[in-house]
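Database export, one record per block. Field names are fixed; values are copied verbatim from the stored entry.
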Amino acid sequence: MATLAEVKELIVEDRKNTELIRGELDKLKGDAVDQASFKKLEDLVAKGFEDRKAKEDEYLAELKEAKEVAEEASLKAGRRGSGSGDAPDEDQIAHKNAFVDFMRSRGAEGLKDGLRDMEAKSLGLDVKALGSATGSGAGVAVPTLVAQEIQSKTNDDSVMAGLVKVVQVGTSDYKEIVDKGGLGFGWVGAGDARDGTGKPDIYEVEPAMGTVYAYPEAQEEQLDDVFFNVEDWLVNSARTSFANARDVAVIAGDGTKKPLGFLGTAPVAAADGSRTDKVFQFLASGDAGTIGEADKLIELIYLTKAQYRSNGRFLMNSLTTSKVRTMKDGDGRFLWADGLAAGQPATLLGYSVATAEAMPGIAANSTPIAFGDFQKAYTLVERHDLRVTRDDVTKPGFVKWHIRQRLGGAPTNDDAVKFLKVAA
């Protein structure tokens, strides 16, 4: 096998031979021509050229082969769900078709082993090693071509999944380290002694995990109807259920068998640096049963530190939005400004507004409005695999599918978002 170093070595050797020829020619100047010497030099040059060319050809051929192998490996990796946009391969298509057959068929347990073989093949796994890939639990994996569509549509429909930081993991063992700062600083002159400053204030966040599931059902007669698209129906059912689950959990999850949400622990009035970790700060509206005047929203913005205001936005539900849209400042100007061009979002006091129906409404002691950098404030953790178990036993005449996914989440920076709390 030729290497680049060997090719370079031969080129250097060829140059040496050239110099040798020049030297020998100089010696022969003015002397009688020595045919034997010229023949020796010619053979030396020819051999050096042939050796170098052979190594170069061998090296270029091996380089081309290695490039083709790398491109094919990259293409296969993309087809296995890397999101590269490549067309699905034959194994993935076969897996998807077998999965749809499994979804439709009565007594489908007989199809499960074959489907699991398809599952392993489409993922590029050894079929004998499938048990370790799929886990010991019941059910089969949702094919990549279906699972990606469910995941994409779920994240499109989930408001909070588009606001917070989302991390996809292969296991439920995920942790984040949060640095609260507080090292302190000092000033000295040249040669002055340095006193110690504060130590790092670091804590570990381990998102609470749980299983979100959908349990849709269909009549057996519907599955017999060739016009019933079981794949689209599965996607739409899971999309709605999982999107709602994400928003509710990220906003208000209590951390028991589900993510710990922003409001999972009630916000308090204490300032930054004096609260318990993962507890947010609220600003009181000052008015019983209302969100107060315009100055309260301005105060909420500037209660948030400058580094979080640059990516800040408001969060509220639709009814609260309808109230805020009518608010005016002391000069009679509306706080709400519609976009000046098509596709440009409306703003509230210069910041965009996200609408999530899982946010609390305006009521005594509720926190209906939030403001800040939600990506810095919260991490949503999701297992990349969806699984489904077919059930045609528990309810005669119907087929049900248990679709599920592991999800977790927790606040990571409780300084990054503030809440407006309605007075009692």
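Remark 1: The chain has three domains: 4-81, 88-138, 142-186+196-424.
Remark 2: The longest strand covers residues 398-411.
End of record.
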